[in-house]
Write a structure and sequence with these properties.
Number of strands: 21
Family: Belongs to the glycosyl hydrolase 32 family.
Strand content: 35-45%
CATH superfamily: Glycosyl hydrolase domain, family 43
Number of helices: 2
CATH architecture: 5 Propeller
Structural class: mainly beta
GO molecular function: hydrolase activity, acting on glycosyl bonds
Radius of gyration: 18 Å
Pfam families: Glyco_hydro_32N
CATH class: Mainly Beta
Organism: Sphingomonas aliaeris
InterPro entries: Glyco_hydro_32_N, Glyco_hydro_beta-prop_sf, TAT_signal
Helix content: under 10%
Amino acid sequence: MTLQSVSRRALIGGGMGLVGGSIASRAFASPSADRFAALRTPYKFNRLVLGGSKVPGSFDEKAVDCPFVFSHGGRFYLTYVGFDGIGYQTGIAVSDDLIHWERQGVMLARDPSDPVTRYNVAAASILRETELYSPGRLIKVGGRYVCAWHAYPSAGYEQGAAVIGLAFSTDLKTWHRGPPILRPEDGAEWERGGLYKPYLVKHRDTFYLYYNAKTAEKTWHEQTGVATSRDLVTWQRHAGNPLIANGAPGTPDARFASDPFVATHRGEWAMYYFGLGTDGKARELVATGPDPLHFRKTNEVLIDVGPKGSIDDDYAHKPALVSHRGDLYHFYCAVGGPYPDEVRGISVALSRPWA
């Protein structure tokens, strides 16, 4: 089997190249409760808030993935990617309570005439305020909203070496997609296999585009880095990449350290991400630091996989957070069941017990 024929989902779902054994939910020692209490969302909803539509021919018929949450006009919005058996397209849903979501259709569609997005286009983030305990209000640049997307070149689920680009909108309905701004072949060895989720942040006069990427070998590793820009046009990869590297054997991020969500709180920075260990399970983790370029892992599993038969018994991963009435909502992609018949959807965990 060649690299091109092995998808990310098959690799981690089917267990190819994984070392036997398991990782306990507390493989990292817990840090001080006082310092990190505000980052935690330990109370799972334990049900999907959005799943595959199961509507034949719809863009999200088979599965939904990769949540991103923000508020606009007094309501909450969830962007997500839908899989129809061919590839990714990006949808959007709306809610008043962050639990019940109404699908609004496709936000960013693939373009069969474009070699970059003819099969896939995944809008992973829209520039928004960085404060963790905020409703995630959007930020305009030059009168426009800015979305970061990535696209895989081949049909199927995350097939091929993806690139990253930006799209712009004045009304959140019509998006004008620009050319790729980051390509794997222009990066270091840790990202030559392809780029994944871009997360866009503005701090002072600089834009920070966090992203994870994979190595080129068949049994690859994923790590997270950043590129910076002053004008959203010219981008410079950070010399200290990757910011979040793989952990030692036996840790929850020994294989993947992926899908960044970056926020600030009480003068510190926090990067939520998911780790994949050698047991083939994906879990939500977090690293903190004093600025946008330096992070240290907190040595804690924030959201673990569930027991056998639960919605997330395989993966609890791909973070997106927002605050509402003082509570922190942590959305994530929940995957349960044996590959290739697993159910992939979006669930949420809360900072306090559910009422």
